[in-house]
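User: Fold this; tokens only.

Assistant: Input:
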Amino acid sequence: MKNANLLLLIAVLLPPSALDILGEVIDERTYLTPYGEAGPLALRQLSSELAVWVQPYTGLPTRTDPRATIFAARQLGVERIFNWDMGIAINPVLQRGQPVIIDDYIGWTHHQSDTFFSDAHTGLDINYGSVRSPFCPEMGAAIQQLLPGLPEAIAVGVDFLRRETRAEARMFRSWGADVLSYNLAPEVSLAQEMKMCYAGLVTISGYAADRAQPAPMGEVRASLSTTVQMLPAFVEIVSQTHHCSCGA
């Protein structure tokens, strides 16, 4: 199977059949890594020439160790990771149901000190003088092409399940954060260590604790449906991208 070098980490609530738009499952694997078990990861076949790895993902405290996820992706030969998450709007201009492309992030999780650098078996080349964008501009451009007009946002990565307090919401806003996310960090930094391209899309599911909390009116469900519809075209565009300026 050609071009199965992209992994979709799906951290949003979708009907079980929604991902059938990516084709039938032709393989499924679970990896036992030095950091615990990762998977199952399903290989879905879009066409005779194109397939994509897909993993349902969760920010629960009992979730897979993020290092296991990224390590398993590397074992699969994955070169690019797209993480689709649901998040909380810290920036007051953002609305429920609105998707945003993550351009940068602030790490605020108990996993944030996780690194592969201390593990010789990863074969990493530690270069403390190298700084590059944590998110891949080419994958971001592909999202913009298919969902025009999406704003770029800074995410603060936090642990689930506890929601932020009103004081924390004000603190995150003062830091310059736009959204609160449960699944982008530290995965993005671990992928960077493994020299993988990484992109993040967050669908706003609610408002910060210090904001009014109007009743939902189906905005999130409609937005998720629109994003699912663009996934096959996104996979095709990304699979045809051979070089990325992010330096992975």
